[in-house]
Amino acid sequence: MSHSELMLTWDQLRERSEVHTELTEAERCEAARAFTDLKRIFNDQFFDMRHPLFLFFFDRSGWRCEWATWFAGFLNSVSKHPDFPRLVRELQDPLLYGERMTVLYTVDILLSAGFSFSLDPEITVNGKPKKPDIFVQLNEQDRGFFIEVTSLSSSEKQREADAVFHTITNALLPFMAHLDYSGHLERILSPVHLQEILQKVQLAAKKAAGETGFETVEIEGVIRLALAAKSQRTLLDDWALARGLEPCSFLGPGADVSEISRISRTLKEEQIQLPADRANVVVIYSHFFTMPPRDEASFEQWVNRLEEEVFKYSHIGYLLLIFSWTGGNDSGVIQFRDHFCVNRRRFYFDCEAIMIFKNRFVATPMPSAVEVRFRDAFVQAGAVPIKQVNSEH
Predict the structure, then answer these.
(1) Which residues are 185's β-sheet partners?
(2) pTM > 0.70
């Protein structure tokens, strides 16, 4: 690919959006206005290849234009805020962009519910200076509360597992126009073993695509994989269901790391940034280490694993654990006791699961009106009626 092909500007993105076949005429007009606004706000300083938005927009999917429309709209809505000039500078910085965006996603939800905010307020906690990420108020009579936002990246072992998984799935990409597949990679493979398995997988894919229409690679304790021509989808689904696997889903190896323990440690580290005189909030954006809750029973398991960790801190009113991913998700809200899980599809492939854990033992609860507005800001993002479990504490 030539250097010129790696160039990207807001003008190019605007011109692309104006003729994008995945967008309606109204969406094309909105996206074009958004890219014009983003150029005015940022100039073309984003398009250093190191910046996360370079690769984000290098993908030509239509939903990237929808995201740009949201992004420009959000920035326009806070353009008069005292923190806006600093916010723009930080968003331009490739090293600060990701961290700042996790904060802004939270701010965006709360703004829609009528809260005001300030970023990085300077406070004192136990005689030491602290700067929580967000201070939030519902109105002038509300004393407000603080929110600390952080990200939980994958462990070294998980990154090793992901690398093995992606090596296999990337090898299957050339066949995806002709094949569907299901299976489970059951352990992390050493480099030499991975090459052996790759050869078997690629051979099976070639045979399924060009000759037989259906092939499997099954090695006990290592991998279970079936590949089928599009016309053999029923055969593939039957194979997966017989083995307790999801049709058209390929799972990676477990990393033998307690992610719940890692979440608990992160909560312990972040809560010390927040004052003890009110109910505050910790938001953890976690890497996508397992499927999020899809029903009441699976959410109950999350509650049972994390509820007691939240109860440990009398000044933490809520813990929000958020999974974000590119893929699919059914919007909806699940409630178990006074905890919620909000599944939502923000854009076509941009999805979230927001698990909201309430601390009913908080020492100084939020005022009722503030708490309801805070909770409902996230719950209503699911955009469907709540499915509730009637259960005793």
Answers:
(1) 223
(2) yes
